[in-house]
Design goal:
The protein is α+β, with helices and mostly antiparallel strands. It has helices spanning 14-24, 32-39, 60-68, 85-95, 98-111, 118-132, 136-146; strands at residues 2-8, 26-27, 41-45, 51-57, 70-73, 79-82. It has a four-stranded mixed sheet with strand order 1-4-3-2, sandwiched between helices. Strands 5-6 form a two-stranded antiparallel ribbon. Helix 4 (85-95) runs antiparallel to helix 5 and helix 4 packs parallel to helix 6. The protein is globular. It starts with a strand and ends with a helix.
Length: 147
């Protein structure tokens, strides 16, 4: 089990946020700070051993994801922001790992294909896939949605 977060840092302000988090949490790598600066993901561990992955967001897509997020009550009155099912599908498809495709299938089943905004997913995912030079991701997602 781990916790995945996105923090909109922009470009150039990442180090300040990384330092603050590393003051409170242990890094999961020998050189967590440099890894975070190079890969835009900060890999931490809580005091009870739970992994915390913080994506350091700066792209317009990441800002839109955060703007579309909604606040929900987690437990004991704790409120957290969660991304939409569509944005989660985009992020997981872009990551393009088998575990992510398994998760996408679960999201589609849980939400129901008729309740998912496929146009939004295509609009957000296509430019990311083009930048990654991997449009096969779009084909794989399309095939999964048709099933």
């Amino acid at each position: 089990m781990d916790v995945d977060l996105s923090l909109l840092t922009g470009f150039g302000e990442e180090e300040r946020f990384i330092d603050e988090f590393l003051h409170e949490y242990s890094g999961r790598l020998p050189d967590t700070k440099n890894f975070a600066l190079q890969n835009r993901v900060l890999l931490l561990q809580s005091s009870n051993g739970v992994g915390i992955d913080i994506a350091l967001g700066a792209l317009p897509f990441e800002e839109r994801v955060i703007n579309r997020s909604i606040e929900i009550q987690a437990e004991s009155g704790v409120m957290i922001r969660v991304c939409s099912a569509e944005d989660l599908i985009v992020m997981k498809a872009f990551a393009d790992r088998e575990i992510d495709w398994h998760d996408i299938r679960g999201i589609i089943v849980r939400q129901g294909i008729d309740k998912i905004d496929l146009q939004l997913i295509q609009k957000e995912l296509k430019p990311l896939c083009e930048a990654k030079e991997n449009l096969e991701i779009m084909d794989r997602l399309d095939a999964m949605c048709r099933k």
